Amino acid sequence: MGNSASAPPPLYPQPAPETLFEPYELVALRNCFTLLAQGPNSTLTADSFRAFPPILPWLSFLDAVCAADPVGDDHCGAFLAVLARCCKASKSDRLQALARLYANAHSGLLSRGAVQALIAHSLAAARVRDSLLDEDVDAAASAASDATLARRMVGVDEWVEWASEQLPTLVHVLPTFLLEFLCAVGRLAEHGHEGALERARADLTVRAAMRPVGEPVLLGASPSVEGKLLSPGAAWLVALAIGPAAEPREWKCLYTSASHGLSMNRFVTHCADYGGPSVLIAATTSGEVFGAYIDSPLKPGDAFFGGRSCFVFQLAPTFHVYRSSAIGNNFCLFSPRLTGQLRGFEYIGGGGVDRLGFGGAVDNLRMSFEKDLHTLHWNNSGLSRDAHPWAAGSLVAGSRSVAVLELYGCGGRDADLVQEERRKVRLSDMEKSVKIDRASGMGALTEQAKQDQFILESAGAHTFYSDQLEKLSLQE
């Protein structure tokens, strides 16, 4: 995994690498090289990187620099050329350059261990942390590496194609860390700081640069209610599949069946009116973990909603994303049936079927939750969702029993505020609109009142028993 490569591809991109870096980057990188090589015309050695954090295969990086300067007369230029290839080239070229650092020197192929190391190093870089001895890192890396390898070894081009589709943000993680870290070393060296290599690890500019590709902060619905299914490493993989974030991510567990109870009514109670995208996670009794990214607020009704950035995924036993295809617009369907005393009434806008699903047709969804959310049904292909790229990786189609179901809100504080305000307005308006006709002596409700009761009950504001209104706390 990263010994000296034979006949490597040309590493000098066009135009010359010096023109690809910003002026401040170029100054810092030259300072860094001078510090590492003890002079601008000196060569790098293995000892040059001994104090570096073990987040990259630095000896393979050194081999690439030596291969870029076979004559030995432009060591700093070769150093910049390799950095340009890894950090400033096109996305596919950057992934290829990084993958070659991990590939077998003789075969040029990536083993399962090499892919696992690349994923683990990326997560460690996103955390700006030296240690890789982390069960969460191992679990995330294993899930991703298993998914890429239908056989023991995989070619660099094949892996780049998989990573570009599955984890489009991954291309930013190691290049960002590599460039920012080396620039931090160079800036400190320029000002004569002792221990520049060690101090660069804690440079705040590195942490700031890594925020868009860092792992989400997982928050509980309350101090006593937290999600169980998403580890930080698993959440990071899903976040890489979603794409880079402009701001640090905070994912709030809006609903977990472990605490709130597994039913459509309880799901609606805690998730209604959330004003942003969300991630759904479901663990089955057989140990599989499925999920879906919903790119817009949940919209109850009979029609599909959402956009092409929606996708379904498998998180365990391996990680794989099934993105929207170019065929069809059936992305998400959220059709809760009327509950409580209102069960049996018609939907305000149609007829609910008590279903949450993704892709395919209404009667043949790619992934769906049915029977009051207790059953997950999976199809291996369907309209608007791509099939698995190789048959060996396909899951067994059919039904599973749901053990735990959770929904994480990904819209940040703004989406939380939307939910809070909508609930306040809905509660105020609906309380005024509920009209009970006592004159009949039967407590009969007007049609408008029936609709209002459903909305209130779905929002979790009230529960109705024998047409009597019992107020409940919104925080419950």
UniProtKB/TrEMBL annotation:
<protein>
    <recommendedName>
        <fullName>TLDc domain-containing protein</fullName>
    </recommendedName>
</protein>
<dbReference type="Pfam" id="PF07534">
    <property type="entry name" value="TLD"/>
</dbReference>
<dbReference type="InterPro" id="IPR006571">
    <property type="entry name" value="TLDc_dom"/>
</dbReference>
<feature type="domain" description="TLDc">
    <location>
        <begin position="228"/>
        <end position="393"/>
    </location>
</feature>
